[in-house]
Inverse folding.
């Protein structure tokens, strides 16, 4: 299994707005081959720190998604957020190979 976490830090007063965006996400990734699960995690001590946690069957499945037209489409939408504070946020991405369960 392959795990990808993308963490962003937004002002605390913007956290609920970003959560709402993800609650209403397009779900295009759900259709990708090898996709297993999506979760949005909120740091309980730092409410403005949110992590998109995705699990994939394997690294190649993730790479296929990351190179897809659907991936590009979703990330183009992010550039068009009406809120300027959310528009320029760059996530910190970490990738993991699951080596034990």
């Amino acid at each position: 299994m392959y795990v990808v976490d993308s963490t962003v830090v937004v002002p605390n007063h913007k956290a609920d707005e970003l959560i709402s965006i993800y609650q209403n996400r397009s779900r295009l990734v759900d259709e990708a081959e090898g996709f297993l699960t999506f979760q949005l995690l909120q740091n309980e001590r730092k409410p403005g720190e949110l992590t998109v946690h995705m699990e994939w069957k394997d690294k190649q499945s993730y790479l296929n998604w990351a190179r897809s037209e659907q991936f590009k489409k979703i990330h183009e939408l992010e550039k068009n957020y009406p809120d300027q504070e959310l528009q320029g946020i760059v996530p910190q991405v970490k990738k993991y190979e699951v080596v034990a369960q």
Remarks:
- The mean pLDDT is 90.
- The domain at 2-97 is CATH 3.30.70.100 (Alpha-Beta Plaits).
- The longest strand covers residues 2-9.
- The first helix runs from residue 15 to 23.
